[in-house]
Amino acid sequence: VTACGSGSGGSGGGDSITMGFSQVGAESGWRTANTKSVQDSAKNAGVTLKFSDAQQKQENQIKAIRSYIQQKVDVIAFSPVVESGWDTVLKEAKDAKIPVILTDRAVDSKDTSLYKTFLGSDFVEEGKKAGQWLVEEYKDAKDPVKIVELQGTTGSAPANDRKSGFQEVIGADAKFQIIASQTGDFTRAKGKEVMEAFLKSNPDIDVLYAHNDDMGLGAIEAIEGAGKAPGKDIKIITVDAVKDGMQALADGKINFIVECSPLLGPQLMDLAKKVVKGEQVQARVVTEETTFTQDQAKQVLSTRQY
Ligand code: GYE
Prior knowledge:
The protein has helices at about 30-45, 60-70, 85-95, 125-135, 155-170, 190-200, 215-225, 245-250, 265-275, 295-300, and strands at about 20-25, 50-55, 75-80, 100-105, 115-120, 145-150, 175-185, 205-210, 235-240, 255-260, 285, 290-295. By secondary structure, it is an alpha/beta fold. Beta-D-fucofuranose binds near residues 239 and 240.
């Protein structure tokens, strides 16, 4: 592929395109599955992929995007680590006539002409589903339900939205009390560390809501280390439904998982080809996903792809 395809109406050299993709990092099982999906789908779709890992740092993503602009790729796709602070670099891409696709996470830019589409989950909905399970589970409880929350990366769309969606649902009943809430940066190590601190300062935690499986899995180690039974002494709700999470759910250590699909690659490649050709695409493409109880996890575990 030559560098002449600028996204302004076809490169004239067949329909092979080059995509610059700036990934958030490798912080979780979800992310690993997402990276594989993007790489495999690029190969299958005949898209030349330039891939970079930002190690959860916005400055690295901005550098990567600038380098893709310089290399005159046909399309830039990225999963913004945090929501704010993208206007300048996205304007640079727009001025260079390189279309941008947001995948997985959103930006808060007011000017929506800075990107062509946003492909990914509805994180507010995910937070609501987590809250709905909790409300149902404790519908007969009279005493306060003491909840600790492990938030995702501070300022990221999934952390903001999973928090607000959950809060919206449980906020209707004052018995649900979030007694501690802190970031675990979506990693297992941080999830464990923060849960250890939660356990030290709060002897009577009823529920843990973790914004992803990995933090929940780290927290399970902390809970067991404190001599308590995860899933029983402390009920656990997580988001993602990666294989390790589903295993813990089937084993009774997690109580409920809200699915968030990382398999965005095929749709991303489709959208990329369309925007490079100058075709109109939907401004928002929402991923379809479900939820899992312990029994459901047992049934689907063996066929789980990631
Ligand atoms: O839930 C978490 C990952 O942005 C949806 O990022 C993604 C989140 C996912 O680190 O595990």
